[in-house]
Design goal:
The chain is an alpha/beta fold. It contains 13 helices and 10 strands. An 8-stranded mixed beta sheet has the order 3-2-1-4-7-6-8-5, with helices on both faces. Strands 9-10 form a two-stranded antiparallel ribbon. Helix 1 links the parallel strand 1 and strand 2. It starts with 8 loop residues before the first strand and ends in a 13-residue tail after the last strand.
């Protein structure tokens, strides 16, 4: 009896109540060019049509194991998929992602070229509503500044980061660090895997890439819940940062208004001074936002996302200090320690 060939990559897609997104994801994953691969969709106890949608594609569909006490749902689903996977590499990707035809091949080639044991891309972020356009660039700009990919990729830097929307890891490394079972209680499981890999001497490779895109949230409520869950972990100085960004917004807006008023009243010196303040503060803001790789309209609107970002930081910090966050119909007890270095939730 001939043995089945071992795929180079096992693509694992955890999915909980993702009927609105999963079809687009799988359409872009099926028929990828390059390396041999298998696709495993893990139905994380969905109550909608997620499983039926997955079964309409040439993929393997499995049910997540019963959720153990204390585990996050995503860790449990990812671990269930990893146990069923046969590939030499594991690619964890979210149900809200869309992939270029060479997404798998590009990631694998880059990982091998750079001798990386764990490669993670920060995807191109798609946005729809005005709130998304205003807020998302602010958050991703802050993350790119606080967690520079160059430092993440540097073996001499302790900084570790990853994005669960595209996380490619050697199977042997995944097993050696304990996989998702070793980070079972982590809200930011992607970075915990990255940290464990880096601390064990394995090489990380991380940066923005357009070969994968994602629209993380489809409603304001979903966006609020998601960032409330994550921001206090992403930014351990959440309240301090909230005050700074609120102040930044006030200075930019008031300086701009004062410039216009002074100009209309022919107060030239005052207009020049206020204009200089406006330009200086807005330039620093714009420089930070440019690192987020958003479209021009979103970048332009992002200054109005500053007060919303500040409010979300404060709300997230309160939730984490109370020790409870919610996501996709589940509640999780949280501990703030040790979960502070990541680029995006998955």
């Amino acid at each position: 009896m001939a043995l089945e060939p071992v795929p180079e990559v096992s693509v694992i897609v955890p999915a909980r109540n993702e009927e609105a997104r999963l079809g687009d994801c799988l359409r872009t994953l099926v028929g990828q060019t390059g390396e041999s691969y298998e696709i495993i969709v893990v139905d994380d106890h969905s109550t909608d049509g997620t499983r039926a949608i997955a079964e309409g594609f040439p993929v393997r569909v499995i049910a997540a194991d019963p959720l153990p006490a204390g585990w996050t749902g995503k860790c449990n689903a990812a671990w269930s998929g990893a146990k069923a996977a046969k590939g030499q590499w594991l690619l964890f990707t979210d149900a809200d992602t869309k992939h270029a035809p060479n997404s798998i091949a590009a990631g694998l080639a880059e990982a091998k070229e750079n001798s990386a044991d764990l490669l993670s891309y920060s995807p191109k972020q798609e946005v729809g509503s005005l709130a998304e356009r205003a807020l998302m660039p602010v958050i991703f700009g802050e993350l790119a500044t606080k967690y520079p990919p160059k430092e993440v990729c540097d073996p001499n830097s302790p900084l570790a980061a990853a994005n669960g929307q595209y996380l490619l890891i050697r199977r042997e490394v995944y097993d050696a660090i304990g996989g998702h079972a070793s980070v079972a209680t982590a809200i930011l499981e992607d970075v915990e895997l990255a940290r464990r890999a880096k601390q064990a001497g394995h090489k990380l490779w991380f940066h923005y890439s357009g070969v994968v895109s994602a629209r993380m949230y489809r409603s304001f409520g979903e966006m609020w819940e998601g960032w409330t869950k994550n921001l206090a972990l992403l930014f351990p100085d959440a309240r301090s940062l909230a005050v700074k960004r609120a102040l930044e917004f006030v200075v930019i807006v008031l300086a701009a208004v004062f410039t216009i008023v002074a100009a209309l009243e022919d107060e030239k010196i005052a207009a020049v001074i206020a204009g200089a303040v406006t330009v200086q503060w807005f330039y620093l803001f714009w420089k930070r936002i440019q690192a987020a790789h958003f479209d021009g309209l979103s970048t332009a609107l992002s200054v109005f996302g500053l007060p919303l970002f500040a409010l979300l930081l404060w709300t997230s910090d309160i939730s984490h200090k109370r020790g409870l966050v919610r996501w996709k119909g589940r509640e999780y007890a949280v501990r703030k320690e040790a979960e502070t270095e990541t680029i995006v939730p998955g």
